[in-house]
């Protein structure tokens, strides 16, 4: 078959293409920026030429949306998208899906996939994600044998093990292609003691003053030898400008910190007068397109944009993030300060990357970044065809991190991918419908089983059995199959127990559209650590009271069967905001009704829409509930909450 791209393929791309041509499944592990996307393009073009259909899954909705725009620009009406937020052209030959939507389709209606020849799993190392990894595992496990897999992964040391698992489970041929070299080499530099060091040896002798672990100094009086000079931003930005290493992505690990750094850097302009005019024109045009002319954040960002600077984090409105992304990809914006989600697949390459720190808050205080996360962020540096090298600047404070820890981050092996298998109640119910208790025979086919032995393996099986026992105790299934409760629970992923109990008690059907919307927001909302309890509110108190008995029932069974974490109680932090939105108050007024960032309000309102849509379409639901749910989701899903409208604007 003739090459589909104008450029010659790298050897690893050629090896993968040969396997694709032989109709084999392929697992590709290569550094960020090495050119894995070319292989997805190849599979899509080849499938179109043969009249075949393809599914493309991605880990996050922002990446799904970006892929939809990219592929639509190339293939027009042949592209569709299904993310829960958005459904456009779902019967197209190429459909972009979140992995959850694909997994749900496999369980609920596998016949719908009978005409598809390929599934592309982007960022397959997401198998290791603590919360969502199980979805990826189930998606691979239940993919029918007639669909070939193209799995794209960052560098992981156990890619062959993952391939062996897929071969064993599917009895299919799987070709592994690994690439360790990047087409654009990376140079790592350090800012420490407010100086720039060009290699680890300089860092050790001048930055650490030859003392590898400064924690030993805590009980001794500091001498001049261990005086700490703080890292100044101005010094770093001067380096980036004078060495011509812009544009730059500046990674940090807090939303407020991202904004503060951007404003601090803005003391210096990074653009010429001509670039400023072009960038401002683009920014104004995008703000007009997304109706942000009166938005306070966009107005403030305009002042940063005039200096060639932006910021980007999950607390911002999706439309404002979109504007920042497009300004940065135009190459007119020279520096963007962002949290790490920006590293996840969104195609934003730069000449340089800065890591504000290499420690990050974890459940047990602060910990040094994982090698894999470091590589993911560092991989954004160095644009193929544009840069001879990419540059990583790592900001080091010797009192926070030891010199050996820095070396481990730079030269250690990336962490292997481990199974996070923890199948949901809805998955179990869907499997029970088809297999009865024989569904437990699926467990030996899991990656978890493949990677474990002895007690750990038995613990995994015990967990599945205890979850099945809970569903039986609460009346979701009998020896004859799923009950009406079970049919309801099989339809709702993630919140199945509480919603099913509320429905069975007849509570959901008695709620009006506003109360139902407030309850959905409370069920999906995850308060941030150390967040204060919301003020007492009449509707919240009523809904909390209605949830009390069903939750007690669930928690009692979870305690009896030693299941944790237990089902989350609703969190009513968004009650006033949701009430106001349902009453058609403008969004800027809504933001004053809760202590939640505006981007998070949009995210949780969209998640509420998703749940309400599931209830409205649920065959097993009370007809009154279906009607109320439809009314509620239509009232919420307007203006900037409407993800589909935003995508169509782009």
Task: Give an overview of the whole structure.
This protein has about 650 residues and is of the alpha/beta class. The chain folds into three domains: about 10-180, Rossmann fold; about 185-410, P-loop containing nucleotide triphosphate hydrolases (Rossmann fold, 3-Layer(aba) Sandwich), CATH 3.40.50.300; about 490-650, Sec63 N-terminal domain-like fold, CATH 1.10.3380. About 45% of the residues lie in helices and about 15% in strands. It has 26 helices and 19 strands. An eight-stranded mixed sheet has the order 4-3-5-2-6-7-1-8, with helices on both faces. It has a seven-stranded mixed sheet with strand order 10-9-17-14-11-13-12, with helices on both faces. A hairpin with a 2-residue loop joins strand 9 and strand 10. Helix 1 runs parallel beside helix 2, helix 10 runs antiparallel to helix 12 (about 320-330) and helix 20 crosses helix 25. About 45% of the residues are buried. The mean pLDDT is about 90.
């Amino acid at each position: 078959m003739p090459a589909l791209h104008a450029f010659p393929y790298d050897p690893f791309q050629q090896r993968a293409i040969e396997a694709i041509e032989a109709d084999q499944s392929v697992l590709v592990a290569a550094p960020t920026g090495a050119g894995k996307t070319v292989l997805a393009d190849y599979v899509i073009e080849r499938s179109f030429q043969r009249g075949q259909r393809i599914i493309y899954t991605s880990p996050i909705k922002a990446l799904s949306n970006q892929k939809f725009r990219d592929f639509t620009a190339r293939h027009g009406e042949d592209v569709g998208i299904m993310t829960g937020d958005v459904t456009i052209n779902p019967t197209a030959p190429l459909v972009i899906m979140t992995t959850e939507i694909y997994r749900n389709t496999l369980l609920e209606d596998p016949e719908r996939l009978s005409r598809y020849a390929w599934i592309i799993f982007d960022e397959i190392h997401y198998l290791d994600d603590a919360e969502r990894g199980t979805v990826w595992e189930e998606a691979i496990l239940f993919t029918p044998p007639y669909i070939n897999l193209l799995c794209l992964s960052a560098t992981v040391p156990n890619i062959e093990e993952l391939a062996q698992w897929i071969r064993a489970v599917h009895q299919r041929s799987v070709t592994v292609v690994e690439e360790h070299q990047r087409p654009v080499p990376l140079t790592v530099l350090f800012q420490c003691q407010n100086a720039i060091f060009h290699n680890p040896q300089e860092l050790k002798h001048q930055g650490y003053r030859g003392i590898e672990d400064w924690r030993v100094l805590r009980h001794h009086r500091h001498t001049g030898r261990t005086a700490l000079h703080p890292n100044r931003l101005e010094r770093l930005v001067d380096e980036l400008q004078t060495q011509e290493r812009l544009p730059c992505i500046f990674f940090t690990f807090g939303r407020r910190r991202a904004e503060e750094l951007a404003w601090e850097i803005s003391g210096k302009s990074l653009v010429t007068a001509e670039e400023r005019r072009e960038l401002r024109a683009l920014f104004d045009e995008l703000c007009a397109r997304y109706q942000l002319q009166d938005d306070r954040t966009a107005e403030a960002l305009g002042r940063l944009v005039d200096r060639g600077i932006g910021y980007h984090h999950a607390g911002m409105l999706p439309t404002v993030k979109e504007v920042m992304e497009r300004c940065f990809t135009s190459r007119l914006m020279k520096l963007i300060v962002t949290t790490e989600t920006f590293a996840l697949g969104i195609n934003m390459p730069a000449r340089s990357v800065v890591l504000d720190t290499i420690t990050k808050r974890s459940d047990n205080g602060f910990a040094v970044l994982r090698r894999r996360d470091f590589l993911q962020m560092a991989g954004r540096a160095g644009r193929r065809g544009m840069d001879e090298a990419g540059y990583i600047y790592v900001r080091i404070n010797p009192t926070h991190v030891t010199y050996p820890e820095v070396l481990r981050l730079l030269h250690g092996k990336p962490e292997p991918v481990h199974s996070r298998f923890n199948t949901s109640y809805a998955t179990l119910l869907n499997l029970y419908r088809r297999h009865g208790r024989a569904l437990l025979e699926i467990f030996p086919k899991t990656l978890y089983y493949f990677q474990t032995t002895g007690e750990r393996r038995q613990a995994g099986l015990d967990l599945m059995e205890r979850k099945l026992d809970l569903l039986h105790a609460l009346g979701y299934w009998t020896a004859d199959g799923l009950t009406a409760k079970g049919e309801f629970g099989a339809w709702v992923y993630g919140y199945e127990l509480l919603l099913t109990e509320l429905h069975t008690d007849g509570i959901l059907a008695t709620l009006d559209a506003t109360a139902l919307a407030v309850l959905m927001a409370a069920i999906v909302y995850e308060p941030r650590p150390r967040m204060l309890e919301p003020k007492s509110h009449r509707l919240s108190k009523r809904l909390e009271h209605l949830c009390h008995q069903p939750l007690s029932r669930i928690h009692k069974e979870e305690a009896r069967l030693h299941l944790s974490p237990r089902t989350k109680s609703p969190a009513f932090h968004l009650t006033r905001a949701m009430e106001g939105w349902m009453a058609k108050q403008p969004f800027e007024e809504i933001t004053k009704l809760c202590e939640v960032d505006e981007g998070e309000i949009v995210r949780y309102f969209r998640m509420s829409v998703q749940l309400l849509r599931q209830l409205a379409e649920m065959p097993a639901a009370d007809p009154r509930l279906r009607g109320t749910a439809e009314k509620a989701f239509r009232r919420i899903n307007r203006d900037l909450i409407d993800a589909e409208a935003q995508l169509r604007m782009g």
